[in-house]
């Protein structure tokens, strides 16, 4: 991975559109704006860690053919604001950009409404090497989020480690809930600031620094909702 920056790569751009923050020979850092889906034809949540733990790392079963691509585009009005669409436009000469099984080269994912950096691999060797770093949990993931309520500061960092279980009710989307029979999960939070509305002050908000040690679906939301 790594290497020198290539001037032909699309670096920079307005924040409302994806662009490269760092460009290497095999691995790039891609900026994902809020509202852009990390996946196409599936969940947009950051559950890639769970899938990495459940399946061995190996070659994808097939690439997305031009026929499949045309059919998929016609079925989804959201294709234009999906990262796979952007990746295939910018890296059309890279086979990995069309590989559905390997998430078009995206090493991990972010929620639809979450903005932040994502690792994008340009070749298979780099992709598998980067995924192994996530499997071994050598990658540190930090988030900044504004949430409703007053989160009390208890020392430097506070650990939330309630197990989480994915729940499906009716025809609604899946969500994670705290459950004794769920999978192990750990979230560290630090209240950086507290705010209140400009009215009577009855509505409180907390600006949190968050570190994820596991990658369960909706983990931050589920853990914060439990306190």
From TrEMBL:
Protein name: Pseudouridine synthase RsuA/RluA-like domain-containing protein
Domain Pseudouridine synthase RsuA/RluA-like: 87-226
InterPro entries xrefs: PsdUridine_synth_cat_dom_sf (IPR020103), PsdUridine_synth_RsuA/RluA (IPR006145), RluA_PseudoU_synthase (IPR050188)
Organism: Polarella glacialis (Dinoflagellate)
Gene Ontology biological process terms in this record: enzyme-directed rRNA pseudouridine synthesis
Sequence similarity: Belongs to the pseudouridine synthase RluA family.
Region entry Disordered, spans: 39-76
Listed CDD domains: PseudoU_synth_RluA_like (cd02869)
One GO MF term: RNA binding
């Amino acid at each position: 991975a790594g290497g020198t920056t290539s001037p032909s790569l699309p670096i920079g751009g307005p924040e409302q559109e994806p662009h490269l923050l760092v460009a290497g020979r095999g691995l790039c850092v891609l900026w994902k704006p809020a509202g852009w889906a990390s996946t196409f034809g599936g969940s947009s949540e950051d559950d890639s860690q769970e899938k990495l733990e459940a399946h061995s790392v190996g070659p994808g079963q097939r690439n997305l053919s031009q026929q499949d691509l045309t059919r998929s585009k016609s079925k989804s009005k959201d294709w234009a604001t999906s990262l796979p669409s952007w990746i295939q436009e910018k890296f059309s000469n890279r086979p990995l950009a069309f590989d559905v099984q390997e998430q078009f080269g995206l090493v991990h994912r972010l929620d639809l409404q979450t903005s932040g950096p994502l690792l994008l691999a340009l070749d298979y060797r780099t992709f598998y090497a980067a995924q192994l770093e996530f499997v071994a949990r050598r990658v540190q993931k930090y988030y900044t989020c504004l949430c409703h309520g007053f989160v009390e500061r208890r020392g430097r960092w506070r650990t939330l480690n309630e197990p989480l279980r994915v729940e499906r009710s009716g025809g609604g989307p899946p969500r994670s809930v705290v459950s004794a029979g769920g999978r192990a999960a750990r979230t560290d939070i630090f209240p950086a600031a507290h705010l209140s509305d400009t009215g009577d002050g009855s509505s409180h908000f907390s600006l949190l620094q968050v570190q994820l040690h596991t990658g369960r679906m909706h983990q931050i939301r589920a853990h914060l909702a439990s306190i």
